[in-house]
Structure formats: C-alpha cells, structure tokens
Amino acid sequence: MARRRPRIAVYKFASCDGCQLSILDLEDELLSIGERFEIAYFMEATRAVVRGPYDIGLVEGSITTPHDAELIKEIRKNCRVLITIGACATAGGIQALRNWKGSAEFMKYVYASPEYIETLDKSTPISDHVQVDFELRGCPINKYQLLEVMAAYLAGRAPSIPNHSVCVECKLRGTACIMVSRGIPCLGPVTQAGCGAICPAYGRGCYGCYGPKESLNSKSLMRRFIEIGRSREDAVMLFRLFNAWAPGFREVEAEA
Q1: Where are the alpha helices (DSSP H) in 39-177?
Q2: Which mean pLDDT values do the consecutive 10-residue runs of the chain (256 residues) have?
C-alpha cells in the first residue's frame, strides 16, 4: 500500500504575496515537491482544494483584523505543524510601522469613510496569536531555506537554518565592511543571514530583511550610526523597515 504524501496548505494574511511567489519560484524543484507532498490548499497557485486536516501549514502575512485573529486559530487547529514564512508572518511586516501611531490616524488620510473599516490597532506576527512550530525569516524568504525546512520535515529532524549575522556572509563572499571602509550605516551586524549579503556587495547597507539574529545589540549599533554622522532620529529609523516590530529591533526606540 502506497504511503500517503504529507498534505501542505499555504495561507495568506496581510502581506504582498512575495513569500508565496518564492514558493512558485522553485521551478526546478516543484515536480520533486509534488512527488513527496500533496499541495492541498494554495490559492495563489490553484483553485483546487483538498479538505484538511493538513500535515503542514505555511502561513504568510501578519494579523491585522479581528477576522484574521479568529481565522488563524482555526488554521492552527487544522494543521499538525504550523510554519510562518516571511517578515510579515514572523514580525508583523512593513505594515507594523503603524504600531507606533495607531491605525485610526492613518485611516482618516487613506479612506473617505474610515468608520466602515474594521481593523486592529496593531499589525502583529502569527506567534502573537497561536503557537508556531517554526519561523522562516526573510522579505521574501530564501526559497532554498524553505526546501531545507521541507526536507527536514520528511527526515524527521530540525531544519538547519543559519543563525549567524549577515557580516559572516560578507566575509564569505569577500566583501569589505562598508560601515568601516565607507561609513555607510548597515544593519548587517544585527541581522540574521539568509540573503548572501547582496546589498553590501553592491555598496548599500543591509536593510535587515531577515530580522534580528540571536544575541544582538541593536542599541549599541544605533549609537554607532550616530557616531558616523546620522542623527538620533535617523538612526532609529534605520531599524524601522521590514522587521521593525521584531523584538531586538523595536527596542531601539528607548534610545530615541
């Protein structure tokens, strides 16, 4: 008797769809994935739906509405393993910038009748609402890291995802530190690796797309930004990007 393939469901909340597109960008690997997994629910790719429960739930996007807050609880019940993918799902995303002001202030400028909009005051990661089994960082995610997570599931082991900083990736590709050599602010020292240090290789500071690394010191790095010529306000704003609400990045507010 053939063994049943694990069923995967892919869900979207408030996000740009970039992480789901990264899944579809696994062009050469999609056939192999289809042989080992059953894509049971993935509205970005197909209208065909296989009813749950599911073995793996991949969730993109942050929670921004009361409806979303209830829906993610139902999804959690329907998935044996829940994996969040991308900065929105793991840290609230770029939309979490509203968390410092409150949604009401923004809605009155965007919507003609904001009283009809039902939303939460904050954009929050999935883990603020339900238990998450694994978080895959990135804006968007690294598709090969996703392959590693899926392979680890099949093998019954923990995924091997790097937890060192982007600075290590700069050293591996032979890129000189742009903050030391050129005085360009860079979040590389406090950001988890995953991108291959693309931005520093092209003379731009790291934007922190993969979120805070383990054992970081963001406040110290912010003070370094001030030393090399940034204002205190600008130094804080360098952390207000894709992972602004992530613990380790949002705390620099205390220094402002």
Answers
A1: 66-78, 87-91, 103-110, 143-155, 166-173
A2: 84 96 90 90 93 96 97 98 98 94 84 89 96 97 95 95 95 96 96 96 96 92 93 93 94 63
CB 16, CB 50: distance < 8 Å: no
pTM of the model: 0.93
Which residues, at least 6 apart from 129, have a Cβ–Cβ distance to it below 8 Å?
A: 63, 69, 72, 73
User: What digits encode the pLDDT tens for the residues 87-100?
Assistant: 999 999 999 999 99
In contact, 235 and 218? CB cutoff 8 Å: no
- Which candidate, 35, 6, 43, 12, places its Cα nearest to that of 140? 12
DSSP symbol at 124: B
Beta bridge partners of 165: 192
Q: Quick check: 205 and 178 in contact, CB under 8 A?
A: yes
The tokens 């968390």 sit on which residue? Answer: 99
> What are the residue ranges spanned by the domains of the chain?
7-155, 166-255
pLDDT of residue 87: 98
Q: CATH classification of 7-155, choosing from 2.60.120.380, 3.10.25.10, 3.40.50.700, 3.30.200.20?
A: 3.40.50.700
SS3 206: coil
CA distances from 253 to 80, 106, 219, 248 (A): 37, 20, 9, 10
Residue at 122: amino acid letter = K
* DSSP structural state of residue 24: H
In degrees and rounded to multiples of 5, residue 8 shows phi and psi of -115, 135
